[in-house]
Structure formats: structure tokens, C-alpha cells
């Protein structure tokens, strides 16, 4: 893998690849790579001629009291994993390289960024959108890959790409989980053994929601949300930040679960804040009996 630390060098590489007709596939990350990231890299390897992974812990998307300084960083290990996955370029700039003194331009979005994660983490999505916009201009990908694990992030990025006519196709890939259901996350490294066991409560709560909607045909969002909260409340180490039942495209609260519905949640387990979500839909309406012409 070719380690690139400068914006200009990465842009030059991207220009050359495009100039020779190559398809660039890009996976932006904050590093401490795990199988969730690597599932995106493998999709990228399938679709692209040139695969670029970025590792950048973006200071602009962390709040002042958040974990920016202690976020796990291990570039040597990330580089080894990139070699194993046949990544072509690993773009890992320092914060000063991405935000040199004098930087003062940001990407902002109305509505979608002020609810859920955006309500819990003011300015988070402003930081995310700004860095993704910059990375798309630096890496110039034909395809960029994001995980459904961060459902709201994937949604706002798709929205930005549409709204600002960006020339990249956004691919969203399913959440990779441990066998016990816990979604892979770099922040799982913060969990002690008892917390790691307790953290399965997120996926258990979401599985309960899925069962209610898809098997028991419960349509009341209020009832589903209450059931999720009840499962979470059963774990003494867990403290709910938010649980919601929303339209998967607009993020507006649902009363009745009809179309594609997102159930996002954020939960503190000990001192670690974890997020997860489930996309659910009511079972298809029964077909009319054969011969019954409408
Ligand atoms: P991060 O390094 O946490 O910013 O994540 C980088 C990308 O990997 C984002 O698009 C995430 O949604 C995605 N990602 C993180 N964890 C997972 C997971 N468990 N499964 C699938 N994608 C993931």
C-alpha cells in the first residue's frame, strides 16, 4: 500500500487515475480498522480499479467534551490490514494538513442534521459533511462507501451529494456484527469485559423491535419504542441517550409503522457511548386470493 500524507499528492494521484480511465473506489474512515471497515473495502475492491482508504480522526466532528484525544489510533496496524486487502492508497493526513491555519469554510445542512445524533452532538454533522466534502474533492472517487451502522450519517451524505451535485456514487453497506450481535465499532475498544457483555443489549433491543414489527405485525411506533426501552432498561450498565422510531428517509417520528422505518438508538454503556439501528418494515400486505381480479 502506498501511504499518502499530503493533500496535493493524493489529488495528483487521483487526477492521474482518472486520466487513465480508472475507476476510483473510496472508503473514508477514522482508522482503528475492523471487519466493518474491511467489508466496505472489499466492496470497494470489487467495484474499483484503484482503491483508496482514508484514515483521519476528524477533529471538527467531535464536541469539546468528547473522545477526540483518546480515540484509538494505530496507523501501522491499519496499514497492515490495507496491505492484506490490496488497498492501493492509504490517505492519512495530519489535522493541520486538512485544516491549515485560516480554514473557515464549512458545509451545513438543514433539518436532517439537527435531530437524533445531531441533537445529541451539536455540530457533529457539520464536521462530518465538511470533511467528507473535502475528501471527495481530494480523492475524486467514482464510488464512495459508507456503513449502515451510521444510518443518519449515510443519509445526510447521500443528501449532500444530491443537493450539491457531487460526482460520486454513494454505496451504503450493511452493518457487520459480532456473533453475539454487537455491531463492530472502534469505540468497542473502550469497553471493559463486563461492559462488553452488557453492550449486547443494543442489538437485543433492536431484535425485539424487528420481531414485533415483522413477526407480530405491531404497527404502533409508541408500543415498539416502549418495548425497545424495556429491553434496554433490563441492563443496569446501560443508560439510554435516545431511542426513536422514524421515517427512514425524512427521519420524522412515525406514529404508525407503515413504510421503511428506522429505529436508531444511542446508549451509554459505562462511560462509552454506542449507537446502532435497525431498518424495519411491516410484512407485505397479503396478496388477494388467486382468481380474485381487482
Ligand atoms: P468510522 O471509522 O467509525 O468513522 O467508520 C468509517 C465507515 O465505516 C463509516 O461509513 C461507518 O458507517 C462504517 N462502519 C463502521 N462500523 C461498521 C460496521 N460495524 N459495519 C459496517 N460499516 C461500519
Structural account:
- The protein is an alpha/beta fold.
- The chain contains 10 helices and 10 strands.
- Strands 1-4-3-2-5-6 form a 6-stranded parallel sheet, with helices on both faces.
Beta-strand content estimate: 15-25%
SSE-based structural type: alpha/beta
Number of helices: 10
Outline type: globular
Query: What's the number of extended β-strand segments?
Result: 10
Biggest β-sheet strands, sense, barrel: 6 strands, parallel
Report the average pLDDT across residues: 96
What distance separates the N and C termini?
60 Å
Please bin the fraction of helical residues.
Answer: 25-40%
**Succession of helices and strands:** EHEHEHEHHHEHEHHHEEEE
Fold topology:
Blueprint: E1 2-4, H1 7-19, E2 24-29, H2 35-47, E3 50-55, H3 75-84, E4 89-91, H4 95-98, H5 117-120, H6 124-139, E5 143-147, H7 151-163, E6 169-173, H8 193-198, H9 201-215, H10 221-233, E7 238-243, E8 246-247, E9 261-269, E10 272-280
The structure holds adenosine monophosphate (AMP).
Amino acid at each position: 500500500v502506498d501511504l499518502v500524507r499530503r493533500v496535493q499528492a493524493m489529488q495528483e494521484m487521483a487526477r492521474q487515475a482518472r486520466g487513465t480511465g480508472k475507476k476510483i473506489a473510496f472508503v473514508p474512515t477514522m482508522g482503528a480498522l475492523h471487519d466493518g471497515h474491511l467489508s466496505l473495502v472489499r466492496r470497494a475492491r470489487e467495484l474499483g480499479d484503484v482503491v483508496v482508504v482514508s484514515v483521519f480522526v476528524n477533529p471538527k466532528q467531535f464536541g469539546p467534551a468528547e473522545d477526540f484525544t483518546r480515540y484509538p489510533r494505530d496507523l501501522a496496524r491499519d496499514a497492515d490490514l490495507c496491505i492484506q486487502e490490496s488497498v492501493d492508497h492509504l490517505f492519512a493526513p495530519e489535522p493541520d494538513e486538512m485544516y491549515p491555519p485560516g480554514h473557515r469554510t464549512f458545509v451545513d445542512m438543514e433539518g436532517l442534521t439537527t435531530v437524533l445524533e445531531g441533537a445529541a452532538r451539536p455540530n457533529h454533522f457539520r464536521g462530518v459533511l465538511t470533511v467528507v466534502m473535502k475528501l471527495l474533492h481530494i480523492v475524486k472517487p467514482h464510488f464512495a462507501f459508507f456503513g449502515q451502522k451510521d444510518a443518519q450519517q449515510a443519509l445526510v451524505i447521500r443528501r449532500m451529494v444530491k443537493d450539491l451535485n457531487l460526482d460520486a456514487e454513494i454505496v451504503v453497506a450493511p452493518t457487520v456484527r459480532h456473533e453475539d450481535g454487537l455491531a463492530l465499532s472502534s469505540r468497542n475498544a473502550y469497553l471493559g469485559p463486563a461492559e462488553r457483555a452488557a453492550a449486547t443489549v443494543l442489538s437485543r433491543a433492536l431484535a425485539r423491535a424487528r420481531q414485533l414489527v415483522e413477526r407480530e405485525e405491531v404497527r404502533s411506533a409508541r408500543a415498539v419504542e416502549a418495548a425497545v426501552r424495556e429491553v434496554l432498561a433490563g441492563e443496569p450498565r446501560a443508560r439510554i441517550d435516545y431511542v426513536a422510531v422514524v421515517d427512514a428517509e425524512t427521519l420524522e417520528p412515525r406514529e404508525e409503522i407503515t413504510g421503511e422505518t428506522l429505529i436508531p438508538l444511542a446508549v451509554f454503556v459505562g462511560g462509552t457511548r454506542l449507537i446502532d439501528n435497525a431498518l424495519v418494515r411491516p410484512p407485505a400486505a397479503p396478496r388477494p386470493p388467486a382468481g380474485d381480479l381487482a
